[in-house]
């Protein structure tokens, strides 16, 4: 079942949701860098985002006395959305930050709109006009510039990690499209956000046991303030995220990557003392131009998502 069609067109409400969700998402990478430097493992920090966010949202649902559906369509949605939207990209994001820097890693979010639009085209849900095609081409050029630039001024970026990080926008884009086309009947944004994050937390516990041989709780217990801050930010972001899925649709929603990247880069420079070379900045601007072109494109096609 698709989200209600009368809410899919981008409007002022969708724009407010886009900006607020993107800013909250942009806080993830700088906080993740601080967490890593504090000795918190990647698995533990990802668990703080998914598990902590799920707990806060569950508390809200209990206070509102809302039922949590566990039928097959909802369970399928929880699992697939968790893997595509949270588990895969988050593990790569926080593993890549030490090699690429918080700001450069978050630049990969800016590719999500272009990849989402590409998936929509391949699925036959949207045919772009010339502006959309130009935007996709610009995005590819910008991505290659960012990937092969030196990244931070004080040290070159690891090319292997720069290429591996391309999985981030691919996974996010697949999640963007999936969440719309498989939206459960009578699905509520807050319930779907809680359920998918709870499943993501379960997978992250398995990952921690597999790779670290320990549960991802001890690191967080040693830094309660940092962990709590991330949990609250994650819960707020996910609550808005699923509302934006309805209000804007997958391609519009994917532009939170643009807002997140801008937020993270500014925080990386102003708070974390990161510096980036001209090539990285130029690549980022080219990506933004590509995102803008795909956003403005009206094209001859149709959108069924």
Task: Give an overview in words.
This protein has 305 residues and is mainly α. 73% of the residues lie in helices and 0% in strands. It contains 14 helices and no strands. Helix 3 (42-63) runs antiparallel to helix 4, helix 4 (72-100) runs antiparallel to helix 9 (167-181) and helix 6 crosses helix 12 (224-253). The radius of gyration is 18 Å and the shape is globular. Residues 5-10 and 299-305 have low confidence and may be disordered.
Q: What topology emerges from the helices and strands here?
A:
Blueprint: H1 12-26, H2 28-37, H3 42-63, H4 72-100, H5 102-107, H6 112-122, H7 130-148, H8 159-164, H9 167-181, H10 189-211, H11 218-221, H12 224-253, H13 256-270, H14 278-296
Helix pairs in contact: 1-12, 1-13, 2-4, 3-4, 3-10, 3-12, 4-9, 4-10, 6-9, 6-12, 7-14, 9-12, 10-12
Oligomer: single chain
Mean pLDDT rating: 77
Poorly predicted runs are 5-10, 299-305
Distance separating the two termini: 10 Å
Structural class: mainly alpha
The total beta strand count reads: 0
Task: Please write the string of helix (H) and strand (E) elements.
Answer: HHHHHHHHHHHHHH
């Amino acid at each position: 079942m698709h989200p209600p069609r009368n809410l899919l067109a981008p409007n002022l409400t969708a724009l407010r949701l886009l900006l607020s969700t993107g800013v909250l998402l942009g806080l993830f990478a700088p906080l993740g860098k601080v967490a890593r430097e504090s000795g918190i493992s990647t698995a533990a920090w990802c668990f703080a985002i998914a598990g902590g966010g799920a707990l806060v949202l569950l508390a809200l649902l209990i206070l509102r006395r809302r039922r949590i559906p566990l039928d097959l369509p909802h369970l399928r949605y929880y699992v697939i959305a968790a893997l595509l939207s949270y588990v895969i990209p988050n593990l790569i994001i926080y593993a890549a930050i030490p090699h690429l820097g918080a700001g450069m890693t978050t630049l990969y979010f800016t590719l999500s709109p272009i990849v989402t639009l590409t998936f929509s085209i391949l699925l036959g849900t949207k045919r772009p006009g010339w502006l959309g095609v130009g935007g996709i081409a610009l995005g590819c050029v910008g991505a290659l510039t960012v990937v092969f630039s030196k990244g931070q001024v004080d040290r070159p970026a690891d090319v292997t990690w720069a290429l591996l990080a391309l999985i981030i926008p691919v996974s996010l884009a697949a999640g963007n499209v999936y969440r719309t086309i498989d939206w459960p009947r009578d699905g509520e944004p807050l319930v779907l956000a809680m359920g998918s994050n709870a499943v993501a937390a379960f997978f992250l516990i398995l990952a921690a046991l597999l790779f670290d041989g320990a549960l991802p709780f001890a690191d967080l217990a040693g830094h309660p303030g940092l962990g709590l801050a991330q949990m609250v930010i994650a819960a707020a972001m996910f609550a808005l995220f699923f509302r934006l899925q309805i209000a804007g649709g997958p391609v519009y929603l994917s532009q939170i990557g643009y807002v997140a990247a801008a937020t993270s880069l500014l925080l990386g420079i102003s708070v974390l003392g990161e510096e980036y070379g001209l090539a990285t900045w130029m690549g980022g601007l080219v990506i933004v131009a590509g995102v803008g072109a795909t956003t403005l494109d009206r094209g001859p096609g149709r959108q069924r998502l």
